[in-house]
């Protein structure tokens, strides 16, 4: 998913020498000698006027001016292309591979590398109705003649046969070169950052801002916000409809590395994941120690998959929540809950003493049906969650009574008391109901 052969961010970004040093001009004789500054064109270049009034822009660069380009020899064509690509990155333009020539023995003898804006875009005159429409882009070809040609020698090397440095368009400025496609490459570190942020539901905007803070500025990131979004899109496309299968494969690997890891799943006739249960070795160990009472909360519904996430949770000796097991269910029915409870008993090997759930009619049937004494185990007690009950006070009685009066405070005195007996609770409950005149409220 994350490749390791990524090119690193260009070394010229953030360098102390800058990009304003001069590279050999290479201006031909048909250009007048009066060179002018082209900073008003948005690039740190110089331009000259030909006899026909055409402007030709000469790029400026730093490290590559130390040698004469026309005298260079390369051991391989890959190194030659890498040099010209770096030359374009520092000069303010991008390059691409073009035509080539081979001899009778199918050996490459000539290779052209040109500016990405070389040539012209194809124009549809309407004569062909089945022409495929291409996506509109900002960058368009304008017939730029800048190029470099390498020729093969008998010593298995390539030397510069021709080098054209003139451009018929302004080049990218020093501050704008970070947005060139050649300078926008997602490194392995950035890919890992986007992938890790996606796993914890951190959006692309925040992850891009975080990368900016780590790198010391947007110009040092080596990518734009659009690149972050495209990578996130590609990750989702890579997963596609294999997300369920990828999870099952991961569980298989976890079970091979840990014998105590337990999982079970079920699919529908269309091979869609409908039920999933898993329990880690630590969770199963925690159940042996703290599994007397547990809570089963099935009120969380995932947004993307419309699956119910329900964890089996308990409390340790430090009053901290510990998770015994978890499950994903596509329906809140007796069948699905019974399936999850059955695998929980199979994974743990025993019933819990007490289970706390919300007021779900399906659980009212599934809990006593599974956590029973049929298999020789001690039957569990089923109780309702107090938090869910108190949340319904506002729905049933309204916010005015629950928030603008001391009704809830007086009611909590009898609800949250652990030492109160049944008769005292009933008398206190009736006293509060009578005080606020709720005897006739259904």
Automatic annotation (TrEMBL):
Which Pfam family, any one of them, does this sequence belong to? FAR1
Instruction: Show where the FAR1 domain sits.
Output: 82-172
Report the InterPro entries cross-referenced here. Answer: FAR1_DNA_bnd_dom, MULE_transposase_dom
Q: Residue ranges of the MULE transposase domain?
A: 295-392
The molecule here is called Protein FAR1-RELATED SEQUENCE
């Amino acid at each position: 998913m994350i490749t390791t052969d990524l090119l690193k961010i260009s070394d010229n970004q953030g360098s102390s020498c800058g990009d304003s040093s001069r590279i050999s001009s290479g201006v031909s004789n048909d250009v007048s000698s009066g060179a002018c500054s082209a900073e008003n064109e948005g690039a740190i270049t110089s331009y000259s006027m030909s006899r026909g009034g055409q402007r030709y822009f000469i790029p400026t660069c730093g490290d590559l001016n130390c040698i004469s380009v026309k005298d260079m020899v390369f051991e391989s064509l890959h190194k030659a292309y890498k040099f010209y690509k770096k030359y374009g990155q520092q000069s303010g333009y991008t390059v691409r591979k073009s035509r080539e020539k081979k001899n009778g023995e199918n050996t490459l003898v000539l290779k052209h590398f040109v500016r990405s804006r070389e040539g012209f875009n194809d124009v549809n005159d309407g004569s062909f109705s089945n022409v495929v429409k291409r996506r509109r882009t900002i960058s368009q070809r304008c017939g730029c003649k800048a190029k470099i040609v390498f020729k093969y020698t008998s010593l298995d090397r390539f030397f510069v046969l021709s080098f054209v440095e003139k451009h018929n368009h302004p080049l990218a400025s020093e501050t704008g070169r970070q947005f060139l496609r050649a300078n926008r490459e997602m490194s392995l570190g950035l890919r890992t950052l986007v992938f890790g942020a996606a796993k914890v539901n951190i959006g692309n905007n925040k992850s891009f801002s975080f990368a900016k803070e780590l790198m010391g500025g947007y110009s040092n990131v080596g990518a734009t916000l659009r690149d972050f979004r495209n990578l996130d899109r590609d990750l989702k496309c890579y997963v596609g409809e294999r997300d369920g299968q990828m999870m099952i494969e991961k569980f298989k690997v976890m079970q091979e590395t840990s014998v105590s890891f337990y999982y079970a799943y079920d699919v529908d006739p269309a091979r869609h994941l409908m039920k999933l249960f898993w329990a880690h070795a630590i969770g199963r160990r925690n159940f042996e120690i703290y599994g007397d009472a547990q809570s089963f909360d099935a009120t969380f519904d995932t947004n993307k998959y419309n699956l119910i996430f329900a964890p089996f949770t308990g409390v340790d000796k430090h009053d901290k929540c510990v998770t015994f097991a978890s499950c994903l269910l596509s329906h809140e029915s007796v069948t699905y809950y019974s399936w999850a409870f059955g695998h929980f008993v199979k994974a743990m090997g025993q019933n819990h003493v007490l289970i706390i759930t919300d007021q779900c009619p399906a659980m009212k049937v599934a809990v006593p049906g599974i956590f029973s004494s049929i298999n020789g185990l001690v039957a569990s007690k089923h109780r309702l969650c107090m938090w869910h009950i108190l949340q319904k006070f506002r729905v049933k009685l309204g916010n005015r009574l629950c928030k603008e009066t001391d009704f809830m405070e007086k009611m909590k005195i009898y609800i949250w008391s652990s030492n109160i007996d049944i008769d005292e609770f009933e008398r206190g409950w009736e006293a509060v109901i009578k005080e606020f005149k709720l005897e006739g409220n259904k």
